[in-house]
Each structure stands twice: as structure tokens, then as C-alpha cells.
From TrEMBL:
Organism of derivation: Stegastes partitus
Keyword check for Flavoprotein: no
Any one biological process term the GO annotation gives: dolichol-linked oligosaccharide biosynthetic process
Annotated keywords: Endoplasmic reticulum, Glycosyltransferase, Transferase
This protein's name: UDP-N-acetylglucosamine transferase subunit ALG13
Sequence similarity: Belongs to the glycosyltransferase 28 family.
Enzyme class: transferase
Subcellular localization: Endoplasmic reticulum
């Protein structure tokens, strides 16, 4: 069964969780052949139960010692735009859709997502465009982000954030 793994890291991003479990988003996932949705909700107020999504098999948790197994089992990862979460997903070679939290002030996440998108490593959107992005996304355009090169990633972050 094709699986989507959603992660918000250690943050709270209830808007992403609300949006991804909406009937519109789950129908879009189902139409693309996904049958299982695994949510890592962090410290958010929402912890949906399995019955929240009649269109798709749902599992949700707050934290685990490691997300490696969830990432490995995923056919698509949807993540907040935190650098650590992006790096972990990209390092695993999984298709990544980043949802930028446009409610954050001085949003460095947007610059990171834009640059990784320009380099064809991920797709990105906001919560308001997530469902449409799920309907229209073309994962075949994504190129691998070569793991094992932490200095390249550090240089990339510096560039994306305008430090260098």
C-alpha cells in the first residue's frame, strides 16, 4: 500500500495536519494511489485518531526516537520546511513535498524551500495550495540530493539564507 508520511518535526503546525486530513486532500491522495497516511504531529494541539479519515488508512503520533523507519516506508514525504526534516527526507532519496508555514515571521523556511525547488530536489506549497499541489504534482521532475556531503548542504543553506 502506497504510504504518505507527514512530519512537522518538533514544532507545532496544526494547519498542515488539518489540511492533510481534510476530505479534499485525502481524496487527492487516494486518486494518486496512496492508501496510507502516517502523521508525526509534534507538539501540535491535534492528534487525529484513525477514524478521522474515512478515505484513507490513518496513523498518527507525536514523537518517536527515530523517524527513519517511517521515512523508509514512505512513498512520499510531506514535511514542514525545517532544515533537519528536509535533509533527512532528501538524504533518504524520497520524493519530498514541503509545506511552508507562511504564518511564521521572517520566514527563512520559504527561502530554503524555494532554493531546493529551483534545484529540482523538492516541490513546495503552502497549506492553502496543498490540495491542488497534491492533485497536480509531477514527482518525476525531482532530482536526488546526494547524501553524505554535509558541507555542500551547509553551503547550500548559507546561499539560500543569503549568508554567502
Amino acid at each position: 500500500m502506497k504510504t504518505v508520511f507527514v512530519t512537522v518535526g518538533t514544532t507545532s503546525f496544526d494547519e498542515l495536519i488539518e489540511t492533510i486530513i481534510s476530505s479534499e486532500a485525502t481524496q487527492a491522495l487516494k486518486a494518486r494511489g496512496y492508501g496510507r497516511l502516517v502523521l508525526q504531529v509534534g507538539r501540535g494541539a491535534l492528534l487525529p485518531d484513525a477514524d478521522s479519515c474515512p478515505n484513507i488508512r490513518l496513523e498518527a503520533f507525536r514523537y518517536k526516537n527515530s523517524l527513519a523507519e517511517d521515512i523508509e516506508q514512505a512513498d512520499l514525504i510531506i514535511s514542514h520546511a525545517g532544515a533537519g526534516s528536509c535533509l533527512e527526507a532528501l538524504g533518504a532519496g524520497k520524493p519530498l513535498l514541503v509545506v511552508v508555514n507562511d504564518k511564521l515571521m521572517n520566514n527563512h523556511q520559504l527561502e530554503l524551500a524555494k532554493q531546493l525547488h529551483v534545484d529540482s530536489h523538492l516541490l513546495y506549497c503552502t497549506c492553502s495550495t496543498l490540495t491542488e499541489t497534491l492533485r497536480t504534482m509531477d514527482l518525476s521532475v525531482l532530482r536526488p540530493f546526494l547524501p553524505g556531503q554535509p558541507q555542500n548542504f551547509a553551503n547550500f543553506l548559507d546561499k539560500a539564507l543569503g549568508i554567502k
